[in-house]
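ARCHIVE CARD
Drawer: 12
Card no.: 0347
Subject: one protein chain, sequence and derived structure
Cross-reference: see card 0346
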Amino acid sequence: MRKESILSFGSIYLDINCPNFPFGDGLLPETETVGKGYQAELGGSAVNAAKIMAALGLPATFIGKVGKDVFGQEVSKLLEKRGIKSALIMSPEAQTNLGLNFISSDGKNIQAVVGDANKSLTPEEVQEEIKKIIDDVEYLYLGGFLKLKKFQQVILELAQEAKEAGTKIILDHGRVTNDTSTEQLQLVKKLVALADYYFPSEDELLAVWQAKNVEAAIQTACAQTQAVIAVKMAEKGAIGCETKGKPITVPAFKVEPINTVGAGDSFNAGFIRAQTLGYDLEQSLKFANATAAVKISQTNLPSLESVKELMSS
């Protein structure tokens, strides 16, 4: 019998987060700006989702690449600390990616990234690791598809193989940008057709399905997939739809945000955890909204207790 566990892969960063950083309108060259403190944390869309899932009690495994350096060792320790089983590829030729995030008191961000380990991760390395693990997982999480340009054809093949093996596919393809090609959008639609869960934001949904409103886009998407669709709409909440069902809208929870980074990944993780707990669509949307709200308003990761407490309030 399969365990309720989830496998994700992709870019991973050692994020150095500097909250309440006094950068005003920006950081100026040849000028030293001094902040009060910082913290090291794991970053990256797929690993963010894995962090939240593990915190909510859903076993998670992550595949990624780091350098064989002190920062790569720290990433490995943080994965273990967060309860994530790692299948890290450690390369002596690569440097672990660092994300430098300066966050002002009003939540604005200045971000910088250094390192090349993520860029050096190859489709062949990912395929090799996934084949070792895929029989032991219930869900395959495909996050940030449109950013993983060199992996896109391989991801489609992996999704097809996973589908045939009975593994459930979770898709969050990410933002459609000005350099997203028609061919890439067609690959997205093929993945949506294979997916069991489809988690776009409002803007992403409209861009992929070329619709004037969310309801029309959901209707078009539903004609091509059997997936449960949950659309993230930020402060407006979320809209969900099951096969041949009517869309359901669930409002967002009103909280004071500290840092909105990872809100969408938290929503995804919350929705899947709710489904494993046997919640219906409406309750799953509510649980997902609450998970995202806890994530952006507290310094601790969401837990089952903190999410349920917010839902009951």
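Annotation on reverse: The chain has one domain: 6-11+45-96+119-312. Residues 281-297 form the longest helix (17 residues).
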